[in-house]
Design a protein that fits this description.
The chain has a five-stranded mixed beta sheet with strand order 2-10-9-4-6, with no helix packed on it. The longest helix is centred in the C-terminal third of the chain and has 33 residues, at 161-193. It has helices spanning 2-7, 9-26, 150-153, 161-193, and strands at 39-45, 49-52, 62-67, 77-81, 89-91, 97-101, 107-109, 113-115, 120-130, 133-144, 202-205, 208-211. The protein is α+β, with helices and mostly antiparallel strands and 214 residues long. A hairpin with a 2-residue loop joins strand 9 (120-130) and strand 10. The protein contains four helices and twelve strands.
């Protein structure tokens, strides 16, 4: 009689539901934790960073992978790909790509990146995948051969204006001294032609003093 009860359609449906309830309640929560029908990849650090190629100083580059419920994706595969030529660099092993797994916060860091000596802007391609889904993004950076401040290294614009300003500040005092010397020489020649003794005049420009001949 017990066998007939188990084989009845109503009993089989009851046992199917019972098994389903047991699976949902007692299997590890991680099995159902992440619905990856859509992924989102955000750049946490490194967008617009300026790399100092002389000292190999770089801003940390970090991305974060989340699912469509805004839950961090753990152990997602992230691949960082550097440009083939021009500004950019290589990783410590000489390759152009680096494969990293996201941590429990869904984050992955670009490690071992060494910028090359080619100055200019470039982009790092980033592709993340998990459970058959993938997402891509691009990170803009700049290789700079001149020292810049920490705030400038994290800026989104290349450091071109400061370099020109520095050259102008060096040229201006030299130009003013040359003009002062030329004017003093003309005045000396004119006074000697008139039989006068030129006064001993000293011109000071930006901490540099130029005096007439004695």
């Amino acid at each position: 009689m017990e066998k007939s009860l188990i084989q009845s359609p109503r009993s089989r449906e009851f046992y199917r539901r019972l098994v389903a309830i047991v699976l949902v309640c007692f299997l590890p929560a991680t099995v159902f934790a992440q619905d990856t029908s859509a992924l989102r990849l955000a750049v946490i650090s490194g967008m617009g960073a300026v790399n100092d190629v002389r000292s190999n100083m770089i801003i940390p580059t970090i991305v974060e992978l989340r699912d469509n419920r805004d839950v961090p994706v753990t152990r997602g595969a992230v691949n960082f790909l550097l440009p083939e030529s021009g500004p950019g660099g290589r990783f410590a092993d000489g390759s152009r790509s680096s494969f990293v797994l996201t941590d429990r916060n869904g984050r992955a860091s670009l490690t071992g990146f060494i910028p090359n000596q080619v100055e200019g802007p470039f982009q790092i391609a980033v592709e993340a995948s998990f459970a058959g889904n993938s997402v891509r993004t691009m990170i803009r950076q700049y290789n700079n051969a001149f020292p810049v401040s920490t705030s400038a290294r994290q800026s989104d614009s290349p450091p071109s204006a400061s370099r020109g300003a520095g050259k102008s500040r060096k040229i201006l005092p030299t130009l003013l001294v040359a003009v002062a010397v030329a004017v003093g020489g003309i005045a000396m020649i004119k006074n000697r032609g008139n039989g006068n003794t030129p006064p001993n005049t000293t011109v000071s420009i930006g901490g540099v003093s130029v005096g007439g001949p004695r």
